[in-house]
Amino acid sequence: MDSETVVHNGGCHCRNVRWRVRAPTNVVAWDCNCSDCFMRANTHFIVPAERFELLGDSKQFLTTYTFGTHTAKHTFCKVCGITSFYFPRSNPDGVAVTFRCVDPGTLTHVEIKHFDGRNWESSYNQSRIASLSNVQNQPTEGPK
């Protein structure tokens, strides 16, 4: 992982939902096989919530889906249906950013790791994914 972070911009397909996130140029993205992520083929990296900013009037174009424990808040665009980010069960204090929804040019490397969402509890404990939304475990901030 990089020791510095940069600003990444991104959003949904129709561009009604736009955001910016401060994260490294090299990220670890999680390919989850829970019932929701598997069906959407969502692969995401996790950042502390304070490093994520929803832009403009994006909020009016979002809707949220929950199931099971209702801890995860699966947000998606009301217009195009794309989940460009959501609030994961593993990191309710963080944001899961769909790496394919980051605008081209700022991500230089994406390492894909598997998260066994069908065996959530054991994967959660083994992966140490919970630490990823803690700002103290994140790289230092680079130029803005």
From TrEMBL:
Organism: Carpinus fangiana
Domain (CENP-V/GFA): residue spans on this chain: 8-121
Domain of life: Eukaryota
Recorded family membership: Belongs to the Gfa family.
Entry-linked SUPFAM superfamilies: Mss4-like (SSF51316)
Entry keyword set: Metal-binding, Zinc
Protein name: CENP-V/GFA domain-containing protein
GO molecular function terms attached to this record: carbon-sulfur lyase activity; metal ion binding
Record Pfam families: GFA
Claim: Metal-binding is one of the keywords in the record: yes
